[in-house]
Amino acid sequence: MKNILCYGDSNTWGCKPIVSPGVIERYDRDVRWTGIMRQLLGEDFLVIEEGLNARTTVHDDPIDGAHKNGKPYLLPCLETHLPLDLVIIMLGTNDLKSRFSLSAFDIASGIKPLLEIVASIAPKNGGIVPETLVIAPPPLARLSLLADVFEGGLAKSQQLGAHYKGIAGLFNSHFLDAGEVISTSDSDGIHFDQDQHEILGQAVTRSAQGIFDGS
Question: What is the pTM of this model?
């Protein structure tokens, strides 16, 4: 069996677009892109969901809490799920929040230490570094309730794909630009509609199959 860890934020957790203040709803497990992937890959693969709302790449959130930082939890998370064959990382959307004042390049650079951590588990993973797939999140769409939180984020989000591709290349990581296959919902500008989860799940499945087939 091949073990795949999906490490991400609310769009990996499966958060529905937020249209009412404080109302957070989650898509069912078979609707989320990870669930689509699990169904398409079949019983020879274990797809592990590790999504957390508001998770950043490497930044403590002064409002939502330091535990939203994706870096400290990654190593124990990896060791919890050993052995691993593929680690998929899709983070960066929350780094676009105006409170962090980060450039698109700096957001993409937050993926570097995460990939270094993945590489560090080789001794405990049978001497093998898991394959990695970096997914650049799609650009933001029309912002509504979260407009103030993500003020100035739209233009930066449109630059993420190119920067993520460069970072992935430095680590010989596989890469997928989600913005080339799906769009963020205009309902809140941050999360994905149900049909986009299905499309993304199909795209990530193709990438995973290509990785394991060596193509």
Answer: 0.97
Average pLDDT value for the chain: 97
Q: What is the Cα–Cα distance from 177 to 136, expressed in whole angstroms?
A: 5
Structure tokens at 46: 């274990």
What residue has token string 């998929």?
88
What is the structure's pLDDT at 22?
85
Q: Which residue has the tokens 């630059």?
A: 159
- Domain definitions of the chain by residue range: 2-213
Burial class (CB within 10 angstroms; exposed 0-12, middle 13-18, buried 19+) of 153: buried
CB 116 within 8 A of CB 75: no
- pLDDT (tens digit per residue) in 17-66: 999 988 999 999 999 999 999 999 999 999 999 999 999 999 999 999 99
The number of residues in the chain equals: 215
Domain 2-213, CATH: 3.40.50.1110
CA torsion 34-35-41-45 (nearest 10°) is 80
